[in-house]
Automatic annotation (TrEMBL):
It comes from Actinomadura barringtoniae. This is NUDIX hydrolase. It holds the Pfam family Nuc_deoxyri_tr2. InterPro entries: Nuc_deoxyri_tr2, NUDIX_hydrolase-like_dom_sf. Gene3D superfamilies: 3.40.50.450, Nucleoside Triphosphate Pyrophosphohydrolase.
Amino acid sequence: MSSEVIEVCAREEPPEAWDAAVFLAGPTPRTPDVASWRPGARAALREQWRGPGRLVVLDPEHRHGIHDDYTGQVDWEERCLNLADEVLFYVPRALDTMPAFTTNVEWGMWHDSGKAVFGAPPEAPKNDYLRHYAAKLDVPTATDVPGTVALALERIGRGAPRTAGEREVPLMIWRTASFQQWYAAQRGAGNTLLGARVEWRFGLHWGLHVRVHVTAEDRVKANEVVFSRPDISTVVLYRRGRSLGDTAVVLVREFRSPASTPDGFVHELPGGSGPSDPLARAVAEVAEETGLSLAPQRLRAHTDRQLNATMSAHRAHLFSAEVTEDELAVLRASGPGGVAADGERTYVEIATYAEIARDRLVDWSMLGMIAQVLTDSEDC
């Protein structure tokens, strides 16, 4: 695929497909005798773009200098800001000719979006507040147009081909394994993504308000948000008893902010997410949260499923291992575990399956995983 840069000016319709899109945010000159910074930005983007596909530049200045519809202009900018993979802020503020009042508002809306870069000449006045938040939120910064363009393109990389509704999923979410897993499932079912809007993002966690054409019902579903995070590995450590109810299960107690339990803690299975494969992550989480070191071959893989399919797209990869009486004794005597640097502190608890079910010790997802493992173990 050949490299291409397409410039879309105010009120013009963006193309139906691209590999990356950049919105040029910043002040527009109030009079024709003041030169705009945007032609230089467009030239720098054409010069620096090395992707194999199509880069779209979304420029809120009119191609012929016509400003005839304020509401239409605002609507176009809002739409294109949401479409952009990167919002390139360049603020050569001049209080008499380019005061950048609207830019201040846009910066306030997008500075923590995860897709903003910031540039401004050192001598431009009244930018200290903007620079403060750029530094606080680790927004990449530069002091000239080519440098700011380079920052945006560095994060874009080679981009990713998207068409129609896919364009509304920015690269920072499109590239996550959790989004691709969810989207592959939707496409496999024959459904079409008609549109999306980022409602929330925190690291690799995200929430998308999506519009999906449900092919099996020939209708559009547009009133839900898909949340997701990296998949987790979860481990059921158990010691078989005389009956299913007598089987001992290892839990960890940990303070988690969303918990609405009587003690404010969650009581759950050892587990978590990370960059390693699910089995390696399972072994690591058991060691971190319980202090028990297990050889990978001791873990039995079960299946992976969503934990809350009406809300979150991420999945739990389920593993189990039967522990010995000696290992149970070590676990009962263990001290706090977890990774302190991540704000994690865990305590081992051991309960029978009957106690877990009767005393409501775990949530429904944990109870289901425990039941799956103990049912599977009965068949062995």
